[in-house]
Amino acid sequence: MKEFLMPSLGADMEAGTLVEWKKKPGDQLKPGDIIAEVETQKGLIEIEVFEAAILENYLIEEGDKVPVGAPMAKLRSESIPGKIPEKDSETHPIQEEEQATESEGPVPSDSISEETSSKEKPSEEKHRIKASPLARSIAEKHNVDLNNLKGTGEGGAIIKADVEQAMAGQKEAPKQTPETGALKDVMKKKTEPETASKQVIKSRTSTSKPGQQESIRAAVAAAMSRSNQDIPHYYLEKKIDMLAALNWIKETNRQREISERLLPAVLFIKAVAKALDSAPALNAVWDNGLQFKNEVNIGFVISLRAGGLLVPAIRNADTKSVDEIMAALNDMIPRARALKLRSSELSDSTITITSLGENGADKVFGVIYPPQVAIIGFGSITDQPLVHEGMLAIRPVLQVTLAGDHRATDGLTGSRFLQALNNHLQNPEKL
Amino acid sequence: MTRDEIQSAIFELLKKTAPDTDPTNLKPDENIRESLNIDSFDALQFLVALNDKLGIDIPEEDYGKTATLGSLTDYLEERSR
Predict the structure, then answer these.
(1) Which residues pair with A38 in a beta bridge?
(2) Which one of A296, A387, A415, B15 is CB 3.0 to 4.6 Å from A318, fit for a cystine?
């Protein structure tokens, strides 16, 4: 009798909540079967079994939160006669289904917890080559030496596709034995001792997050394609001397706790909101004609680490103080990165700002987010030679661009807007 | 606070900021933000979290000393004395 334990998905995981059992007592478990779904800090995770056994009974119920290493279920080990050859059931059995995980890239080593009792696992096994039963039988049939193959399966195991590729002569054939052994050692070190069952965790976060990212990517693609097809963009650019604004931020931040400090982006947002007074036609949507918007809801482009963008709105930015805008960013950006925005935040923008932050490109020409009619791009602030009061000086310069919808407005409107934006940024204390 | 404790706090918080990276692979003279692709907002949040965890306030004029793993560790070690 063995216990199936709550696996560890890395050092920072303390506990997991059982969301759903995927197998019932009495079910025969094959290696690779998903026994349960567990919610962790890393998202919803599917947990795989890595050896043949029969699920005896549950030790915890759905909804229970238990620490890492706590028993979740009792398993009765049982080899399936004739299905899994003896020699393979004692090694790391790999199912061919795992090919499906290949496209996700290698499983990070900290998400693998191979838990093995030393009694069950003879030490010479460390030097065995990890390969799926199917891969072994194909290799044997075609006289392919597994020693010469590089596995692309779970934990570097050789799978059918690797053997087939080797047969087709398309693949380099590095010696794998030492690496495989070393990998197993590393994996063993990472595991908790004294556990009975072998588990590999297939992270649903790594499958479903890319899924979410893909859908975000698809949304960006659709919106930007539509924008480029439908909107005749015009572009304007203005260099803005940022010395006054940066000095003001430096001064105010000196008096603030670190958690209260401001970023230049807050001034950009507030200055855009105020400058729209001079060019209200830019705070509008194009829907069979120009429709002005009363509220100034500024969409702020947030790039996601895995790629793609979200553009949540800072509502009524014209009436918010810079502190309130900073608080809004502090609230919104982490939620955006966690993909936990409210639907209203993603649909209410009346104009968009994209800001590259520090040490990036000097300027950015945006693509308007339909049905809006303008996007303001803020480049990185760089020290540049600038004529100031008739003298050449080195000043921190911000290059701001405006992309406008030429159906809705003309360059003169955009130019007036950029001039107003400049004026506001020269008087940061009034923002 | 020992240097090791400071570094492990740095790694822990960087991992939170940039979960898709392995901050422990940073070389001492490597620029943290460039290497881990951390933007201005996350950089500030990281310093706020460091302040929370270690109780060390980092004035804005010292941000320049926090650029690399080595300089940040040196700085925090100095400030924690």
Answers:
(1) A18, A45
(2) A296
**CA–CA dist B65, A175 (Å, integer):** 45
Asked whether residue A185 is assigned to any structural domain, the reply reads yes
Total domain count for chain A? 3
- If asked whether residues A258 and A190 sit together in one domain, one would say no
Which range of residues forms the domain containing residue A97?
2-107
Are A258 and B15 inside 8 Å of each other by CB?
Answer: no
Q: What is the CA radius of gyration of chain B?
A: 11
Q: What is the CATH number of the domain that holds A392?
A: 3.30.559.10
Smallest CA–CA distance from B19 into chain A, residue = A305
Going by C-alpha positions, the residue among A380, A19, A346, A357 that lies closest to residue A204 is A19
Whether complex ipTM tops 0.90: yes
State how far the Cα of A242 lies from the Cα of A398, in Å rounded to an integer. 6
Interchain contact, B59 vs A254, CB within 8 Å: yes
pTM of the predicted structure, to 2 decimals: 0.60
Looking at the complex, does the CB of residue A255 fall below 8 Å from at least one CB of chain B? no
Helices (H), A231-263: 243-254
pLDDT in tens, A357-408: 988 899 999 999 999 999 999 999 999 999 999 999 999 999 999 999 999 9
Do A230 and A198 share a structural domain?
A: no
Of all residues in chain B, the one with the smallest CA distance to A303 is B39
If asked whether residues A12 and A45 sit together in one domain, one would say: yes
- Distance, in Å, from the CA atom of A42 to the CA atom of A33, rounded to the nearest integer, reads 21
What single-letter amino acid sits at A171?
A: K
A408 and A259 in a common domain: yes
Helix, strand, coil proportions of chain B in percent (round to 5)?
A: 70, 0, 30
